[in-house]
Design brief:
CATH topology of the largest domain: Chloramphenicol Acetyltransferase
Number of strands: 19
Largest sheet: 7 strands, mixed
CATH class of the largest domain: Alpha Beta
Shape: globular
Structural class: alpha+beta
Strand content: 15-25%
Number of domains: 3
Distance between the termini: 67 Å
Radius of gyration: 25 Å
Amino acid sequence: MPTDLTLPELGESISSGDILRVLVKPGDTLVKDQPVLELETDKATIEVPSALAGMVKEIKVKAGDKVKVGQVILSVEEDGAAAAPKPGPVKAPPAKAEAAPNPAGKTPRARAGGDEAAGANPSSTPPDSDMEQHLAGEKRATGGKVGVKDPRIGPEAASDEAPARATNVVDITRGARAALEPAAPELPPVPAAPSVRRMARELGVEIGEVPGSGPGGRVSVEDVKAHAKRLVERAGRTGSAGGSPVPLPDFARWGAVERQPMRAVRRKTAEHLSAAWAAIPHVTQFDLADITGLDALRKKHAKQVEAAGGNLTVTSIAVKVAAAALRVFPQFNASIDMAADEIIVKKYVNIGIAVDTDRGLLVPVIRDADRKNIVELSVELVQLSEKARTRKIALEDLQGGCFSISNLGGIGGTYFTPIINAPEVAILGLSRARTEPIYKDGGFEPRLMLPLSLSYDHRAIDGADGIRFLRWIAEALEQPFLLSLQG
């Protein structure tokens, strides 16, 4: 009798994927650990191995299908050998770049305007069953109405160049709470300590809506955190504080349309950036750096870097400058834990670089960027970019970033407002350098000017510190000696 082969666990926080190719067909002889599917998750492309040996009897999925962990993908007539044990997590393709542990993050990645988005941070979405129970409880308490649509937050929140708004977790949770109509009847006081009630007030959570996990339904700090997290994640997935997607008209009324499934990377980017935009009060500041001298040095030493296997670009130089700046301004190398009232300052410097791929935006991470010279950074940047574009990037290559850089200069444009790659607190955008007439020493002369855009989390960084950081980067690009003097 044929045995069903199911999709095994794919790794931490990965519950599903999109099938790119089915690698076997009915009648094929299968051996254990032979790849049977090529699967694209929101983090990387992986090959799914078989835990069975025998003849393939039936393929139950096809290219383009979205499959979940535990779903049957094919049936196998085993060859009589003992059944294989339950498969363990699937490992992503091995990477040559060194791996580092993934620092904890509160917001599911992101990809960003460059955090990723693509995807520099794993999702922390609660199981569907927990969410369904939570929503069912709200519906029972409110006559079936849950959530509210917030016109300030729409699909454009997933764009890398959306105009800046200042919203936060408190806005989202209060907005979601205000949508519960009709008002619930008065209930007995919720059993919770004063410190728990204070945290709920600070997060904008109604203590009466929090399911208590303690004796007699007593609400703990962890219960409040989990409830606030569910509200924020729901807002990130739908693009509105109330958890309901914005209704769309019937576009076919005005002409032909085509519906295309959202790819895994694009879907994760949309979720991650929507959540980051909704939860983080973004501020973006702009400046210009005179890189006339730097560009001359870049051209002079380009051949030396090419001989080492790299490409000496403004991006690779900016990685070195940003890494040095994070040492001078440690508040930019941090993450915020609002639930614990703490700022987490990192003692390592990992820089994420936004890479444009045919699947969407990915943000591979260069580790210990402050300890590497520009030649080493240029070589590693070429390697990571190639792996991202050829779908050979590993999960560990997309994790652990401290600060991100998005360079759109190769395409064009002047300034833009990059979305922070949460849980980072800042991101630097680079646009196309232009030769402009600059007044200097009593006259105008042509100078190559590079537009800089810095977005930062206003909860962690004040405006004065933001412009100091951006001016330091601009001056380091203008005067490379500053890297040796202060970096």
